[in-house]
Specification:
The chain is α/β, with parallel strands linked by helices. The protein has helices at about 5-10, 25, 40-45, 75-85, 105-110, 130-135, 140-150, 170-175, 180-185, 195, 215-225, 260, 275-290, 295-300, 300-315, 325-335, 345-360, 365-380, 385-409; strands at about 95, 115-120, 155-160, 160-165, 175-180, 190, 200-205, 225-230, 235-240, 245-250, 265-270.
Length: about 400
């Protein structure tokens, strides 16, 4: 059993600066007065009074302590899909489908402590070392070309973040727009939106089936291209949007548009726990977390750190994992026999299998890896409407060819 199976089975926002007991001006030490002798200095300091401390109201800010991922009871397939998406972003993200109260949102938010490190550019223009490897030295700005020649780094490792897209987010919140603070000073400047903030991070959309149509369109375009362009009057800017998309939905509240459904690589049905003992254990863990979150987080701290280390190691190994032709042919036969048209089926299937092999510290995909991830990668891929449509068109083509053969004969 791999570590990722064990983990699957194991039951950003900026904060405001807290006010201090005195203002910054009060705390700032005054310049020492000019004195003529040491006695005069001692007399002045001795006679100085210390102002009384004033009471400070609490800021009201809450500390974020997500429920430990490894403390979630059951839900093996859901946890496995989320871990595979962290290891290999090429999987295409995860869609969690299930009723309310099955732990979908809790599981996604608990990924915060497992997120790996990703390279982030040190350049204003986002230049990266791989740009030079693929496009040569002219693919980066002059400053980065100079840094590269001098052997200076162009990027630094940084912890990935979980960015949530609220259900009530407007189009301007999502893609960006005119910076109002700059416009107040008679200047025009664009501010980036949530899609750019999610670049190289995990973008979580809860109740994705209830998003506004214009937000869905922007999300689809950004996810497909890996970048998007904002135009406001004479200003325009293109932003990166290379994120791992994770969504959750309750089918009772509405269906999901086929276009955005196709953007999710792994699809997981999240059912309620059926074993009474598991339900009781889930209750006890939730109760312990509500009474003392720090204690529950500390209980799983060592395992959480180990899992994050394993995820990072799997990501580093991923580039060396290869897919043999014999294994690939099995996957192609599977999609062909299931009559799946979308090429994203093979992409998700093979990339998820590579991630699973990397999690097992192997450099080659096996047929067994395909069997583990096939259900998550291939479900909800067939369209009854399209099958009926093509059958109708096929009969029409046959009739057309028969008429043409009759006329020609």
């Amino acid at each position: 059993m791999t570590w990722i199976e064990t983990a699957a089975m194991t039951s950003v926002m900026e904060t405001e600066e807290a006010p201090t007991s005195a203002s910054a001006e009060q705390l700032q030490t005054e310049a020492p007065p000019q004195v003529r002798s040491l006695r005069e200095l001692i007399d002045r300091v001795t006679g100085r009074r210390i102002p009384p401390l004033r009471e400070v109201e609490p800021s009201g800010l809450a500390e974020s302590l997500p429920f430990p991922f490894l403390a979630i009871v059951g839900q093996r397939e859901m946890k496995l899909a989320l871990l595979l998406a962290l290891i290999n972003p090429a999987v295409g993200g995860v869609l969690l489908i299930g009723p309310r109260g099955t732990g979908k949102t809790t599981a996604v938010r608990s990924l915060v402590d497992l997120l790996p490190s990703v390279p982030r550019s040190l350049c204003y223009y986002g230049c990266m070392p791989e740009d030079i490897e693929t496009g040569g030295i002219d693919a980066v700005c002059p400053d980065c070309a100079k840094k590269y020649a001098e052997g200076q780094p162009l990027a630094k490792p940084d912890r990935a973040r979980l960015v949530e897209l609220p259900l009530n987010a407007t189009l301007e919140d999502v893609i960006g727009g005119i910076d109002e603070r700059a416009s107040n000073h008679a200047r025009m400047r664009l501010k980036r939106g949530l899609l750019n903030q999610a670049d190289k991070n995990v973008l979580y959309v809860d109740e994705v089936n209830l998003l506004q149509d214009d937000v869905v369109d922007a999300l689809l375009d950004a996810a497909a291209q890996g970048s998007y362009t904002v135009r406001r009057g004479p200003l325009s800017a293109t932003y990166w949007s290379r994120f791992t998309l994770v969504g959750s939905m309750n089918p009772e509240e509405g269906s999901l548009r086929p276009q955005i459904m196709d953007r999710f690589g792994l699809r997981v049905f999240v059912h309620g726990l059926e074993d009474p003992q598991e339900r009781l254990e889930a209750y006890r863990r939730v109760q312990a977390y509500l009474l003392n979150p720090r204690r529950v987080v500390a209980e799983y701290l060592a395992e959480t750190e180990l899992a994050r280390t394993e995820i990072q190691a799997a990501r580093n190994l991923l580039s060396e994992v290869r897919l043999p032709d014999t294994v690939a042919s099995k996957g192609l036969q599977l999609t062909h026999r299931l009559k799946i048209d979308s090429l994203r089926a093979e992409i998700t299937l093979f990339e998820a299998a590579r991630a699973y092999a990397a999690a097992d510290a192997r450099s080659e995909v096996q047929v067994e890896d395909l069997a583990v991830v096939a259900a998550m990668a291939l479900r909800l891929r067939r369209s009854g409407f399209m099958q009926a449509y093509f059958e109708q068109q096929h009969s029409e083509e046959q009739e057309l060819n028969a008429v043409l053969a009759e006329i020609a004969g």
